[in-house]
Write a structure and sequence with these properties.
CATH superfamily of the largest domain: Transposase Inhibitor Protein From Tn5, Chain A, domain 1
Structural class: alpha+beta
Helix content: 25-40%
Strand content: 15-25%
Radius of gyration: 27 Å
CATH architecture of the largest domain: Alpha-Beta Complex
Largest sheet: 9 strands, mixed
Number of helices: 16
Number of strands: 21
Length: 491
Amino acid sequence: MQPHAQDLNPAVCQTECFAGQLLFQDLGERRVVADFSGGQLSSDGGALLLRQVDSGLGVTRALAGCFVDRRDPELIDHSVQELLAQRIYALALGYEDLNDHAHLRRDPLLAAAAGKTDVLGAERRCSEHRGTALASPATLNRLELGAQHADYYRKLHAQPQAVEAALLEMGVRCLPRDAQVLVLDFDATDDPLHGRQEGRFFHGYYDAYCYLPLFCFCGDVCLWAQLRTADRDGSDGTLEALEKIVAAIRARFPHVKIVLRCDSGFAREAILAWCEAQRDVYYAIGLARNARLEALLAPAMDAARARHILCGTATRNFADFEYRTLDTWSRARRVIGKAETGAQGDNPRFILTNLPAEGLREAKGSLLLAGDARSLYEDFYCERGNAENRIKQMTLDLHSDRTSTHWLSSNQLRLWLSAFGYLLLERLRAWGLAGTEFATATAGTLRLRLLKIAAQVTVSVRRVYVRLCSAFPLQALFAQCQARLAARAGP
């Protein structure tokens, strides 16, 4: 193919570059040219689903009530709820950086999802802002940094206790109403820091400067997200969180049985004693092995070794016994030991529990949770690993580790915003996708397969018309999800 004359002209090429045109490989005798002049388009057609979930659950509405807004209503274009919707929906759509909003603020579909009636920004008060319906990165930054100070210069201020309570209330509302047993999975993780943020400490286990956030999940629902400094025990703050969570659950489910499940870092006397003093509050917590525990497990381990020699395959036995530490526990407690051996040697493990050996039963006598050693370890405690997968979703899909502001309080607000974004995606899955192939999909999969849809937006006097991509492969599923969410959405 002969090159076009204008392709040989450097001046023309420079003009095309400044015009934003991108040249790709020719397609037969046709040139392939691209630019960003499509106009009122969006790559996030699924943002409308997030708005429907939010309408049914009331996340941004409740969260907006947790802010003190001292701005002059006559001088602002964005309400607190609109700012929060813009930020949380963008997180759910994969935009973790505030700088992304320099371009996203022109997205008419995100503006419609955030509740903007002027989705094109044609009626903005300031003429230089017309054409951009949403808030700028600087405005969103002021929203987040307002968590640090409440003074004359910061007119938007988050009330941390109110935000914490709102997340807990929303999460408890998402729990199944017919639940007989609720399992609380507590876990801590590392949040590496790459600057000199407030509260920065070096953690020897993670070999990095980091924060040490504490999470609590009940099933797939996030109830607690607390940003902590790393100069503390991994269980620090768990008892205070547990008191608030159990009280919130009891207010909605007076007779439900609650089981705390976590790793050995939470086997602390204060937590154990508190659970034992409550009605229908139980625990199943990992216990770090030591010489005394291994001695108590020795008969079961000997039997496992003998069977391994005989069969040649990995073998495990279980032992159920009472154990008390030398000086840190106030009483002897039930311990379940797993005596496992295989080609790679012995692998003893222990869990600590106050669950009765006969298990948990409802009033009619039906078994809710088996209490024998094998079932408690294999069928119940090992499920704790799913909590770590949910934390991975928070970190990798909702960018909860984007704690790059200087202040600890504003980084805590960012963590909460990610938690609310996760909650929206979790409800999208639970309400709109139950019984489908995406009923157990991760937040990242939901975003990639269901929310990232090309859309053209046309605005008229009477309607905002969104034309979704005709080649979208999951059109039937999208329509089904929309219908289910519409039945729950508010006006």
